[in-house]
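Just curious: can you write a single protein's sequence together with how it folds?
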Amino acid sequence: MAMNKTRRQHEADRTEILRFLNEAGFHPVTPHSLMIHLDEMFHTVSNEGLDYALRFMLGKRWIEIGEEKLLGKAPRILWAKITPAGVDELDRRTPEQSGVRE
């Protein structure tokens, strides 16, 4: 059974995704790598949830994505990388939201 997340939990997931993409610099990261990282950070996200989060951040222009488009199938995200606007958004988030590690 799927777990319904609160807005705060979605924001925490997005913050962790932005942090991981920021650590990768401007190099692309695969969704599989993001799933592994989120799982290690105790942010349980389904494939559909990750796809939704990445497309949400794409709409905000915080990230860029590479897609594979096949006829008759939904586009599949192959990679994501942070944009300068995404770095600014990560910097704007408070230390409590961004989970600054000491």
Notes: The mean pLDDT is 88. The chain is about 50% helix and 15% strand. The first helix runs from residue 7 to 23.
